[in-house]
Amino acid sequence: MMQPREVEVFYIIPALRRELTKALITKNNLSQKQAAKILGLTEAAISQYLNEKRASEVNFTPEITQKINEAAIRLKQNNFLVMKEINDLCEAVIHSKVICNIHKTYDKSLNTKVCEHCLGG
Known about the structure:
- The protein is elongated and about 45 Å long.
- Helix 1 packs antiparallel against helix 2 and helix 1 packs across helix 5.
- It has one domain.
- It is 71% helix and 0% strand.
- By secondary structure, the chain is mostly helical.
């Protein structure tokens, strides 16, 4: 059985990085090099995110996407916030229960009662 934190590490964080990459470059007019520096990633990783070669299997709700776009604006202004912003986005994904859908997709043995317990519901 896959633990919720494993879902976060293997699927959510990479997908958040992908979306932050896109937001920094397409919406905030940064270069791949600048986005890599802000996110603490290599330019190769940025390229893979942009070309959907990494973390392409997870999609977020419009509400989460809006939070990602807002985080990208803050990161452009202060790249020292990257850990806080990614952590806050992870919390938003958990509270929106998007994590449950992702967990169910990748762990067919998941008992849905575990989700309710995990989220305190």
